[in-house]
Design a protein that fits this description.
Layout: H1 9-22, H2 27-41, H3 45-54, H4 65-75, H5 81-89, H6 98-103, E1 106-107, H7 121-130, E2 135-138, H8 153-170, E3 174-182, H9 193-198, E4 201-205, H10 214-225, E5 232-233, H11 255-265, E6 268-272, H12 282-291, E7 295-298, H13 310-319, H14 333-341
Parallel strand pairs: 1-2, 2-3, 3-4, 4-5, 5-6, 6-7
Helix pairs in contact: 1-2, 1-4, 1-5, 10-11, 11-12
Length: 345
């Protein structure tokens, strides 16, 4: 995301949004640039030429003074001032995790606008490729999570067709098919079993009744990670430590039993890189290391700029004893998929 020269108005607006997202800017600021990019991208060529000639970008719905200035400069062949400033100000994320970040080949937990993400699949995956990934899993939510526009079986099947077409365009980069499936109250999974079997990556997460007692929560999670379709246990404590959604305490469960089940049944423990989650806490990462678990360091990205947050998870992983060999996202895609397809113990 550091291309030299003028990127053109649409690319400039989207890159500005990327840097703002990466830096955790307020959502309304990011949306202004993404909305402006969409407006310009849909202009017929004669209309675009007329606007550029007449300097009338402000007359378009969805274009404000700041986005108009960016479009004007980019249309004239210059790198917009805002973009120059953002590129110069961008600092490395979590430099203490750089060695592990450089070993990662992919990100196995991301969202698109098919559920509660903010950008199309193609944009998310193009950015993942630009960040140096060999592969990236698309794991939109399952149907029970209606607040996140979770995917019904029918919508997920349609998404698989979209991913297949995009994989032809983006090769050799590969989009891995996937889902973040809800762990239901009885430990079963919120999607049809035959459809889960078709997917490359299944992340299973608890999103409801997070305050269940320890015995209930432990049973739910152990039952889920023992399911042969599950590859990754997502953000296991459910905690929130900061951010616009407020804070939320950890769920109560027997971590030793849950992580032993992960080890036994071949389910990786996710180290979630979102700054507001930092999940699991350090003591639980160390317990999972001690028990011999594998790990998946994921962004849980809901926007393109968040795809660069993996460094946060890498820094925490290294600080608590996780080695690159234990992280499934460092494996070549063929090795990863052989592992996900193998039955657990």
């Amino acid at each position: 995301m550091t291309a030299a020269g003028s990127p053109g108005p649409v690319a400039a607006l989207r890159e500005i949004a990327f840097w703002l997202e990466r830096g955790r800017a307020e959502t309304h600021r990011v949306k202004a640039y993404r909305r402006a990019a969409d407006v310009v991208a849909t202009l017929p060529a004669p209309d675009y030429a007329a606007r550029a000639r007449e300097h009338s970008w402000r007359e378009l719905a969805g274009i404000g003074p700041k986005t108009a200035a960016v479009i004007e400069q980019a249309a004239a062949g210059a790198v917009p001032d805002v973009l120059v400033e953002l590129r110069a100000a961008a600092a490395p994320i979590a430099p203490a995790g750089a060695a592990l970040r450089s070993a990662l080949r992919g990100d196995l937990h991301t969202h698109s606008d098919w559920s509660d993400g903010g950008s199309p699949i193609a944009e998310m995956m193009s950015v993942a490729a630009a960040l140096g990934h060999d592969y990236c899993a698309l794991t939109d939510h399952s149907p029970r999570l209606t607040v996140a526009n979770g995917l019904s079986a029918e919508r997920l099947r349609r998404q698989l067709d979209v991913v297949a077409a995009l994989n032809e365009q983006l090769a050799p980069f590969r989009i891995l098919t996937g889902i973040e499936v809800d762990i239901l109250d009885d430990g079963t999974l919120d999607q049809e079993a035959d459809l889960l079997e078709r997917l490359d990556i299944v992340v299973a997460s608890v999103h409801s009744h997070l305050r269940d007692d320890s015995a209930t929560m432990t049973k739910r999670m152990v039952y889920a990670v023992a399911n042969p379709h599950v590859d990754i246990l997502g953000h296991c404590t459910g905690r929130l430590v900061e951010g616009g959604r407020g804070t939320r305490p950890e769920s109560s469960f027997d971590a030793e039993l849950v992580f032993e089940a992960c080890r036994r049944y071949g389910t990786a423990v996710e180290i979630n890189s979102r700054p507001e989650r930092r999940d699991p806490p350090g003591r639980l990462i160390e317990l999972a290391v001690e028990l011999g678990c594998l790990f998946s360091i994921d962004t849980d990205a809901h926007a393109p700029g968040q795809l660069d947050w993996q460094g946060y998870g890498c820094e925490r992983a290294l600080a608590h004893g996780v080695t690159a060999a234990r992280v499934i996202g460092t494996w070549p895609v063929e090795e990863l998929l052989t592992w996900t397809e193998a039955p657990g113990e």
